[in-house]
Structure formats: C-alpha cells, structure tokens
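Many introductory courses stop at the sequence. We go one step further.
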Amino acid sequence: MKKLYALLALTVLLFTISGCEDDYRSMVLFEGAEPVYEIGTCDNRVSSLSFYLSETKGEVVLGIDGGDGSYSVINEHEPVALVTFIGEVNGYQRISILPLEAGETIVKVMDGSGESTQLRITVRSRRQYTMTKMGFEYGISDGAPTELLGDVAEELSNRPWLENTGYYVLVADKECSNFLEKGVLEIYRTGKEDKPLVGRYDTVPVEDEDGDTYALWQFTYNGEQRLFTRTVTGNEGSSVIKCVLAENVTPFCSSGLLPEGVLVIYRELFTVRME
C-alpha cells in the first residue's frame, strides 16, 4: 500500500512539473506589482511593447523576475527608446522604457550568469487603421429588374470608387475613444500611390422620413461629401475586422435610367487592420 501511495505522489508531482514547465521562464519581464505564474494566467508577462508618438503619455515601467539579480541591459537601437534601471519596488528590480522616435529595437536583459530575456519595442509616429477593399456589389430595390444594374454600373464606371486592393487609412482624432468616430482620411484609390488624397471622415446624425435618427459615415475630400451606411463586424481587439460601406448612388444616375421610386445601392467590402 505504501508503494501505491508513493507512486501516486510521484505521478502528481510529475504532472505538476510538466504543467508548469511551459509557464515558467528563468527570467521574465512583467507589468504590475509582481509576476503571475498560475497556469493559464500569464497576462502580466511582457515580451513586446508598442508605442505611438502622437498619443504617448510617458514611460512604461516593467519588473524583472528571475536570474541572480546582477542585471544589465543591451539596447539594440538606443535612439528608438530610452531604457533605464529605476530601482526596486516590492523586491523586484524595475526598468523604465520611454519612446523617443519611430522605429524598432530589441532590448536584452541579462544577469551575471548569462541568463537573459528579450523585449521587442516598436515605436510608430501614429496609430492608424487601414481599410483595404476586397470586393463590391450593386443592390436594387425589391421588385425592380436586376438587369438594370448592368446599365447603372456602366453609367457610374467613372465614379471615384476605390479599385480592388485600393485602401483608406483612418487616423482617429486624439480625443476619440473609438477609431470609427472621426479623424483624418487618406485615400489610396489604386493602392499604388506614393501620396494619398487627404480628407476627413466623421460620424454624422441623419434623420429619416419617419423622424428616426441614425448615424452615417461622412467622407469629405476634394470638395465632395459622400455618405455611407457602415456595418462593422469585430472590434479593435479582433484579429480580423470587416467593414461594409453602402452608398445610395441613385442620385448619380441620369434621369430616366431608373423607374420612379427605385433605389440603387453600391456596397464595398473591406478588411480593417491596425498598424
């Protein structure tokens, strides 16, 4: 029986060691008061940082755990970020990271025995969202002949649509809590331009015939204003965000092309990524 208990105890010990092995490193950088090592809870360990010079609020402080305590730092590209030791808090040595200019650098934190860990620092001049066009379609009022869409597409072929793989760049205003609200709009119609057409995007309230108010996206550029119904799936934390812009293009059709009361909508599908 004693042998059985011993085998069970050894099995539990081996399971515990193997379960923690992936979550433990001899040296780690972390945010907060102390590092978190519970299995499945590694949220405060840090291996990379991103900064935006247009909205930075100062330094970021990280703690060091592990090693023999004789720490040193090698900063691959010092002009990108200033990395300094600032003493101990709660028994853990701390380093301060202050962004200086756009670029990337690798910071290596070492101890006297040669143990080390790395921190990748990326500094960008601004936070921006790129909306790349993936496709489009026309829609027409229910009951209207769909063959009219061919005539509409031909007549509106010279409208300033984005080409597929063309893209918008959105740079939200500083006071915005969500990038969709308003900001600077850059337009790369073909996706190959060296310089964009620059304008604004704003969320504007519009009242319909029934008196209901809803929000549209207004693009203002080159002396023109365009209104879009915006449908977004995903959020800023998602790996993939998709957006559909729908524009009522009926007013741009020549008189007599469409029967009275018929509406034509132009829809563009975009993928959105943060840079």
